[in-house]
């Protein structure tokens, strides 16, 4: 037996160094004194904050995990170095919870894999004043614990856990969330999220659900989805328009709403691909020329723009002048990180170039100049896409990414 | 003091003639020192083995004992149980002059002794053994639930901590009251 709390400072330090994050989190649930000791001594490795993944639907999952399982990870590099800390699930009742039965069901469902879990007796603990009763199982291979809660804590648990981990491990409060929008039960009140990714879905969603989500989720940096369609468009007052970096290739917005966007970078598909969006883009350009929006850097609109003449109707344009700006635009966001599903590989992060090199070549672009502040924007159009590059720096030095 | 000379256990070479890394150097007879724990049983350990302990190595360097002086003045470690000191001495002998492998399998396996061993090793400043012991301590709770961790590492619950704190406050209050009464009596 080891009286852990009576170990000298240096010894505890060495013990912590030998433990994994998931073990230290479970240790912290033992008592407030242990929590204090961890806060005083444990140093977390370099990281980019935590990620909460809800409703995984990932074929790479171990068979005893299922679609309802949610997890918390420490983000290190968005690849193999990210550390799974803990998983959790909600059940109707802990009283009658028969985990063995549950695993038996999953074993039958995924008969090609061997069941390898360790069921433990339930326990009660407290985080941030929230008293939690749960059952627990441990994956013997990975050591990842899964907690089983009754549904009454599902509104509070994920965000309280995040807050708790930020305080316990004294790390950045940056939170990344991967979720399904039709299950936003994990957000019960206003929550600041740095980056938000959606799981792929074939279901068409009511846009009101999306607006409600953006109402609750204060997204500080980016929002992206690869496949999630809506039954209409997001609202004009949706908070989506304020997100700095947006990637939505699924016609969530109408071209006439583009004037609402106040972020830095956006890549939208607009309306129906058969709709001609020339007039709406013309209105957008006029709106930008008359605005004081200094945020916008790059805008890509996937839609049909049939007429260059119509696009620049009433707008003064000029061709490239090497004395006024350089030929090639340098994007501050060279890569787009997307959460996508790949057959046979499951869900994973992929980095894509935000622009192909030829897209950034603005030698043949049309330049427009805002009279109020002299800001130049280069406009390029092809049959299905509209590009706008705002020259906040007219002769930026190239980076290695370009 | 009951004195039993040890240090020539089967794992430890009795009298190494030459250090392997200094074959060309002139032969230097190995010096021995003596340590004892709470049980007063004296262990004879070579200076080479004791080099693992930064504390004892420092003491040896500062004292500059002759063989006779060392024998007459064993280093007393009254805060270390005899069997624990024996484990430490055995480990030092086994690893004399050798780098410690990262996964040292020669460490005693008795988990109930691990706590005392860790404290002793920390006190004696045996860095490599301490790292390994801490690894063992961490291993004890791998794959365990919080309830199991609490049991293995003897962590009191919040309620137990609160009760202990209350008790300590009560005791401190009583002691303070006693001291005040005694001081008042003295003043009279």
Automatic annotation (TrEMBL), chain A:
It holds the Pfam family FBA_2. It comes from the Eukaryota. Residues 278-300 form the Sdz-33 F-box domain. Residues 4-39 form the F-box domain. This is Uncharacterized protein. It comes from Caenorhabditis nigoni. The lineage of its organism: Eukaryota, Metazoa, Ecdysozoa, Nematoda, Chromadorea. The gene is Cnig_chr_I.g2409.
Automatic annotation (TrEMBL), chain B:
Residues 1-25, 160-188 are annotated as: Disordered. Residues 38-96 form the SKP1 component POZ domain. Residues 165-177 have a biased composition (Basic and acidic residues). It comes from the Eukaryota. SUPFAM superfamilies: POZ domain (SSF54695), Skp1 dimerisation domain-like (SSF81382). Belongs to the SKP1 family. Probable essential component of SCF (SKP1-CUL1-F-box protein) E3 ubiquitin-protein ligase complexes, which mediate the ubiquitination and subsequent proteasomal degradation of target proteins. Regulates cell proliferation during embryonic and larval development. This is Skp1-related protein. It comes from Caenorhabditis nigoni.
